[in-house]
Sequence to fold (212 residues):
Amino acid sequence: MSNESWLEVLRKQCQPPRSQRIVATELGVSATQVNQVLKGNYKGDLARICKLVEGRYMNQVVICPVLGELSVDKCQCHQEREFAATNPQRVMLYKVCRSGCPHSHLPVTIKIEKKLTGTNPFPPKDKEWSGEGKVIFYQSSSNENKNAETKRKHRNTKGENLYSLESQLAYFHRIAGGDALKLSELLETELTKLATRYNQLLWSKKYSRSEK
Fold:
């Protein structure tokens, strides 16, 4: 990883043939803001600009309790979105960002419900984060991890954690980074997993009927 500061990276991104306006569009801010940051007289939230640059140009990521691996600029954008009950995932993101997520800069205004992820999505400060799919469990004792995994599988059999095709595709495109071959490999692996799960469901359904 480069030792360049985010400000140095921002300055380089604004050099020809690119421009401050192009960079501003990519970051979702105004060209005036970019200009003021580079001149050192920006009076706004400098930490926010820092996160946008780190996520967009420096490949800085966090583990989101809802979306899994997420660039820090996308994390920032989700924090700034207003509430809208357009889909369950957006509602969940709104709650998590305001429930004490360590990656959120927002004050805690919502008490998170355990049913959101099936376990405590925010580990104690002395615990490490780890992710599996779209659900986050913190590294604890082996018994706690086994219990969490059992609960997750139980929820999946009930259909409470629905497969989000849109989120999964977005995740694969982000990981592939424009590499068509890598994207193809990711999709092939995912299709194989889905086929295995589908066949397992068919067999379990068949045997459950035969037992009756």
User: Anything to note?
Assistant: The CA atoms of residues 24 and 34 lie 6 Å apart. The longest strand covers residues 61-64.
